[in-house]
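User: quick one, sequence for these tokens?
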């Protein structure tokens, strides 16, 4: 680890942000599934990144809906945006890189529109003071190699023996560089299925001298391990060891597993814990449909947020199939508690 290159402000980036927000941060909810609710057809290897090409206005609209719902952090539509993915669609290398930048630009634009609107709408001094101090971060989403494969392997984490640490680093390198230089405040490495990919991200951040911080967020389907079977404590330890990682956690995982996972992660790190579960429904890759399963519903999910905060998490949002309503519920639940 080349600590000399990690800016001093990176170390305290998230704790400073959380302090300024009153101790916790609200993240947005599902982006891709919300784009679908707005009529986007994402049945495509690019998934949500398809909208960067076909309907950037819907992406901006959804970012704005989440800001209106109370989110302090919005994540870009770059989850499944990759240079190889765009090239497979016939875009040139330059055009592909431009589309990555565009994902960040749309989110920055939404933030600007939102803040401007707040200032205009404010009718008294108190309101304008409040809106001008509302902190909003743009997190550039990076989905896993498995997400690019678009074969559901971000939910198995099994890439086969031919995929090595170097394969993963080479796959993500240019994409991470571009997103880091596009004006985002941090990188959200999301739905990380295994240790190998976490290690690849940690090494990339270090070797490429990436100047913005990052969070690492894993997914689980048993409440103990990442989806690949690697233990969640091993995964979180890799995140803990990277100076540029400012929060560690779980996303796109059923709400019923979250409490236990927070406790496991807390055993190996003192970094802020980020959680943004999915709605608890399960995705059937064959039929391409979401199925309601037993356990918590979206409403229960919101009522558990304060428990998750007590267990040690400090950044809360939603993943697939959660909506601006979910985020509004989370924001309300947190603001009504005296923590
Ligand atoms: C499969 S997890 C997807 C995460 C991404 N940020 C989204 O909400 O679209
Ligand atoms: Zn998800």
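Assistant:
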């Amino acid at each position: 680890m080349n600590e000399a290159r990690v800016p001093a402000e990176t170390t305290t980036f998230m704790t400073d942000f959380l302090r300024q927000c009153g101790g916790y941060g609200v993240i947005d909810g599902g982006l891709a599934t919300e784009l679908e609710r707005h009529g986007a057809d994402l049945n495509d290897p690019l998934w949500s990144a398809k909208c960067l090409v076909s309907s950037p206005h819907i992406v901006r609209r959804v970012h704005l809906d989440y800001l209106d719902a109370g989110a302090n952090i919005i994540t870009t539509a770059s989850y499944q945006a990759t240079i190889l993915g765009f090239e497979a669609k016939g875009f040139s290398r330059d055009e592909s890189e431009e589309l990555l930048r565009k994902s960040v630009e749309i989110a920055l634009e939404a933030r600007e529109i939102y803040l401007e609107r707040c200032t205009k709408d404010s009718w008294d001094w108190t309101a304008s003071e409040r809106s001008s101090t509302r902190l909003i971060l743009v997190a550039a989403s990076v989905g896993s190699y498995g997400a690019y494969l678009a074969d559901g392997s971000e939910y198995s984490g099994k890439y086969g023996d031919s995929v090595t640490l170097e394969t993963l680093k080479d796959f993500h390198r240019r994409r991470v560089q571009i997103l880091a230089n596009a004006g985002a405040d941090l990188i959200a490495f999301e739905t990380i299925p295994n240790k190998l990919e976490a290690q690849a991200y940690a090494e990339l951040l270090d070797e490429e001298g990436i100047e913005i911080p990052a969070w690492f967020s894993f997914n689980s389907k048993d409440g103990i391990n990442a989806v690949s079977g690697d233990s969640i404590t091993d995964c979180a330890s890799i995140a803990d060891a990277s100076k540029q990682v400012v929060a560690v956690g779980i996303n796109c995982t059923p709400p019923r597993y979250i409490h236990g996972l927070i406790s496991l992660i807390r055993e190996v790190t003192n970094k802020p814990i980020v959680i943004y579960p999915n709605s608890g429904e399960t995705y059937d890759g064959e039929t391409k449909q979401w199925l309601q399963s037993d356990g918590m519903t979206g409403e229960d999910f919101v009522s558990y947020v304060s428990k998750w905060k007590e267990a040690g998490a400090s950044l809360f949002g939603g993943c697939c199939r959660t909506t601006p309503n979910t985020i509004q519920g989370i924001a309300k639940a947190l603001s009504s508690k005296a923590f």
